[in-house]
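Appendix B. Extra example for self-study. Work through it before the problem class; the solution is given directly after the inputs so you can check yourself.
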Amino acid sequence: MIRTKVTPTTQTEALAEVLDICGTNAANCMQCGKCSATCPASSRMDVLPHQVVRLLQAGQVEKVAASQTIWSCASCFACSARCPRKVDPARLIEAVRLSVVRKAGGNYLKADAVPALADEAMPQQALVSALRKYSK
Amino acid sequence: MQRIGVFVCWCGSNIAGTVDVAQVAQSAAAMPGVVYAKDYQYMCSEVGQNMIKQAIAEHGLTRVVVASCSPRMHESTFRKTAAAAGLNPYLVEVANIREHCAWIHKDKAEGTKKAIALTRAAVAKATLNAPLVAGESGVEKRALVIGGGIAGLQTALDIADAGYAVDIVEKSPSIGGKMAQIDKTFPTLDCSACILTPKMVDAATHENITLYTYSEVESVSGFVGNFEVAIRQKARSVDAKKCSGCGLCAEKCPSRKAKSEFDEGLRTRGAIYIPFPQAIPNVPVIDRDECTYFKTGKCGLCSKICPASAVSFEQADEVITQRYGAIVVATGFDMIELDKFGEYQYGQHPDVITSLEFERLTNAAGPTGGKFVRPSDHKKPKKVVFVQCVGSRDTSGRGKPYCSKICCMYTAKHAMLIRDKYPDVEASVFYIDVRTPGKNFDEFQRRAVEEYGVQYIKGMVGKIFPEQDKLMVHGVDALSGETVVIDADLVVLASATKAKDDAEALGRMLSISTDTHDFFTEAHPKLRPVESHTAGIFLAGACQGPKDIPETVSQAGAAAAKAIGLLSKKKLVTNPCVTTVNEALCSGCLACEKICPYGAIAAKTIELTNNGVKETRVVAAVNEALCQGCGGCTVACRAGAIDLKGFTNRQIMAEVDAICF
Amino acid sequence: MLLEEKTSQEQAFEPLIVAFCCNWCSYAGADLAGTSRLQYPANVKIIKVPCSCRVNPNFVLRAFQKGADGVVIAGCHPGDCHYSTGNYFTRRRFTLLMNMLDFIGIEKERFTVDWISAAEGSKFAAVMNGVLEKVHKLGPNRKMRDKRWKR
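Solution. Structure tokens for the complete assembly:
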């Protein structure tokens, strides 16, 4: 892995977009790590939730956007429920995810195509979140 | 017509920087009644004060207006100046042109205009000022200390040593407080009992100290120097005079269900019990909710076996009324409930305990006799996990947003003590930040890491799962970015501190304020840290905010010094700004009586002659010694018969008029 | 008043706000605002009262009559009154006055009762700025103003 030096103020616009989407304040985080300790999906994450928040605090949206984490997050909100500072990491991750999806452009998934793809055993919530993730 | 002198202060450049002081003085000279106006660099200096005195003499001033800093700062200074020149001190008015004007506004023209308006208001008010004479009140040479923990004991001892009588009111059956429950103290690892119990004995045997244990303050009235306090001494059901403290009753009591408060519920106690062996007074108390005799009328074993026949089921609560000159509040703190923190399994699993329970568990006089075993199976744990900030620095509503201050240190102490005594036991600490700003504190915590090999992990614990006889602690190491799991045998939670649940009620009784977390508020965060907003009531210890023992003791000493300073005064000057009733206008409806928080207003029957006929009439009368001068009654009076000296209706109206000039 | 004078005055509307402040909290809060060098416009003029319950509704009416464009009463937070219960009376009394002001045509926004502790210098400045903003929107107060009043 090659390390690059970080300048905290380079991606302020992207950060503003993310914070605008989620409406939470990453600055409230004091890096206790409760979210990462709580996360049931952390084993699949390359960047742990508290590191996501730290990267966002430092304005490093690109690194978060390029991470595996945002696609591993199951949006179970355990981190949000236990966060002592009301940071709501799940929403932050969701916001980065959305910003990526929005920029991706083309339609991944059309509503008409869903019935054919749908699996009976698939939970409703997964279906809805799939639409959120892959359609535009 | 009054002869008013106006003195405008530059306050160096503080005021003169944004206010044209010369112009203020010039405008003031033209205000009605003003015969003299002058500006000077520092009015509060000796030169400035002499200037005022000289002007009073030379120009025959009958009123003085000083346009300077806040009256909260120098009103008393200028009043003394006027008094020295032979003018009644209450004929002085201060216009606040610094805090309320010069420091707020940048624009000089605007600032000058406002300063003139404020000066005009002060002149208008001063015109109507009346000479007032402050009364005097005595000081009851006795202090009350609420709370018998280390803060209260230290305060009481200091006051008593100065030669004043002190009463300690303690809610629980024994003095000692939280410190008595603690095993060792940081950062020196002194034995807590060894340094506390001698103080307890000193307090109990001091000729100037009276202990009221198992007692609560029921009501407080009066004012600085003359508080009247009712203390409810709850029925102990044991005659303290007869009891020899042999403890036979507590030993033989067949009821064993109650959990020992002193041992944090890790041990049970009888319905009749002595909280702990070193308790003072060493007199048992019957917990009437637990006692079989009180519940069913049967048993009474303690009464039968007591060699001194001291058990008295008939004993009733006693209310003692006593007068005090000063009150020190030292009610201490508590730990928060952890029912909102389900992820830690506290209350679900016996091997997840709080730090205070850990203190009892490792105490030589504790439930295990000092043997380090876990509560579930009484086996020695091999891995102990400490979790800090359980509810501290938590803005989510589950805990408290403040730092509890003591947890970093006592957790380091606990971990160090374990590693010292049992080097084979692993100790890990999950922390968010380590905060050790105290003398020898950081060295202490580093020693735990460097010499005793305590594993410090920056991160939190997300959840704890019991697996067979282990507790799987899932956490994170935020620095390395790795998730962590530890198969612990014992988990110790450093729960947040909180104010006592009844702090707010007590604060209301004493009319002292509490902050949003129910800690008592000091009068000034920097300059008056041990005084409350109410004169004569002082604060000591953790009831004012989380504190460790050294800090508590120093604050207790400071509170004692303040109380001694008050008690040593022969006379206190009372506030002359009290209400008066115009009997000619008063209709005797007594609406004022109902709203007075001090009971200072009462009905009075007066005799008067109406057209040659003698008749009696009921009017309101103010007890000037009780009136504190809030002025609430003046607004309640339908006839406008009641007015507040120093803030009369006419004076305030004149100020309004002058401001709206 | 000359017409030119009037128009020029209207162009630069300088509202006058009278603030009655409790000696124990809000007055000290205003002092703290000063000590902290917080900014609020010079239009606010403070009158010290021993307790917010000392403020007679007459004082408020008098201020409006004499040309004030806004009036503020600031006391201790409920439960924190230096005189234990004074601000509860304030709260009740001025709830009624608020209705009366509304009835006689003075906009409710011109009159504010707020709780500002001695530690809340920034709140003091914020409340004053808020009041001024509202009064600026409403313009000068003409109702109840004494005809003899020149301002």
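Self-check: Chain B has five domains: 4-128, 142-234+317-332+500-567, 248-305, 336-497, 579-645. If your reasoning did not lead you there, revisit section 3.
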